Amino acid sequence: MSDILRRGRLSSTPDEDMINFTSSMSADKWIFEADILVDMAHTVMLHEQGIIKKEDCSNILTGLLKIREEGIEKLDHSYEDIHISLESRLIDIVGEDTGGRMHSGRSRNDEVATCIRIRLRDELLSLMEELLELRKALLGRASENTETLMPGFTHLQHAQPTTFAHHLVAHSDAIGRDIERIVSAFSRVNKCPLGSAAFASTGFDLNRERTRTLLGFDDMLGNSMDAVSTRDFLIESASSMSNIMVNLSKMAEEIIIWSSSEFSFVELDDMYASTSSIMPQKKNPDSAELVRGKAGTVIGSLMALLSLCKALPLSYNRDLQEATPNMWRAVETTRSAVRITKGMIATMKVNTESMAEKSVLGFTTATEIADTMVRAGGIPFRTAHQIVGVLARGDGNPTLEEIDAVAKDVIGETLNGRGLTAEMVKEALDPVLNVSRRNITGGPAPTEMERAIKARMEELESTKAEISVLNKGIEDSLKVLYSVVEDYTGTKA
Ligand code: ARG
Description:
Layout: H1 16-22, H2 25-28, H3 32-48, H4 54-70, H5 82-94, H6 96-99, H7 108-144, E1 149-154, E2 157-163, H8 164-189, E3 191-192, H9 208-214, E4 219-220, H10 224-229, H11 232-258, E5 266-267, H12 286-309, H13 323-347, E6 349-350, H14 352-358, H15 366-377, H16 381-391, H17 400-411, H18 422-428, H19 431-437, H20 446-489
Parallel strand pairs: 3-4
Antiparallel strand pairs: 1-2, 5-6
The structure holds arginine (ARG).
Arginine is lined by residues 24, 81, 108-109, 112, 316, 318, 320-321, 324.
Keywords: Amino-acid biosynthesis, Arginine biosynthesis, Cytoplasm, Lyase
Catalytic activity: 2-(N(omega)-L-arginino)succinate = fumarate + L-arginine
Domain Fumarate lyase N-terminal: 8-300
């Protein structure tokens, strides 16, 4: 048996069914590049620590560069994972007396954990950037619509007038928190398990600090058993992604109902719409429906990760191999959903007239009428609530006389007698004034919205700077790794 893994202990080879069952090769395409980096850093460090000879180090690194160039397709896919097929390819290229030394002081357990963290941190960084773009699009559309009236809803019933800007900034704030969560998850993802070997570390005098810095990790995992066993960083990342998808699906749901004839608040750009194979007139918001649907995929991945990790004994168990495909599915789905949502928001047509028209339907100004009675007539809010409640049985456009007829029944006197005027009633019924009066922090008044949007745009810039620091930290470290590899191989890495 030429299988470099099984030839010692095991005497029979797995059949195709067994290979398919146990192999992680298809998901391992996600960590091919990362595995090469881990192999390079480990090899360099092994030589620096006097564990392997310089010549072996150079030959291994040259072999790794060749494998990277050949690509994953060239690897033997009958091995159970990328780590062992890559090592086997290396041995093919440089011979076992050299290639067989690379895995000294290492296990696939610390290797795979390191690879996953390297790929995931890159994905988190890209996701942060995509979320920033989405947030920017939401704020951009908001700043065009600070005066665009629309009905605000509770229970999906018309509630109070607000503006489209106010609604969009609400979503943008949710995305802002999503970004914070991903940044926070990144800080726990970017820690290095390498050097932990199978779980008990190793008797070789490894320099864990060196591989940590060469690979651009901010810190290392301090307990070798925890380092190979934990997948809490996957759970945490998938949880933050689930939260993103929940937020996106809420937006998607609104885009779907807003696109209906009943609402007709927005119209998606044709690029984001589909049509029917039988009803030629149809323009369907399929992209939004798929964002809503794909939220289920990501939440499912989180559930799978939680169920997989629950009650696993320390340390490494092969169950963990089932975790990563769920992570990659969540990553891929979330990133594309963020991009598509951004595109839909940035390009959709806003029917400002239809929104404004509907902003007063359902007596949305009722709260302002009640508030005006409190301010002008000095009555308790609860009493005003009762009076306006009775008026709401009418057409939603009460006159001062109608108000006073009800007031007499409820408090035994007119509100006009207590200072309420017809002018005040008219103003309270005006949706534009309703909105402009709500100018306290967080309210929809155009002045407050302009301030809010500007503050968020600034926040966006500082997050962008934060992300580029994280990116640069990794880039700089890898540059060092590549230049060391170049020194040993004479080849540009
Ligand atoms: N393919 C494995 C995984 O994803 C790599 C680690 C295998 N370790 C082991 N002890 N069998 O988890």
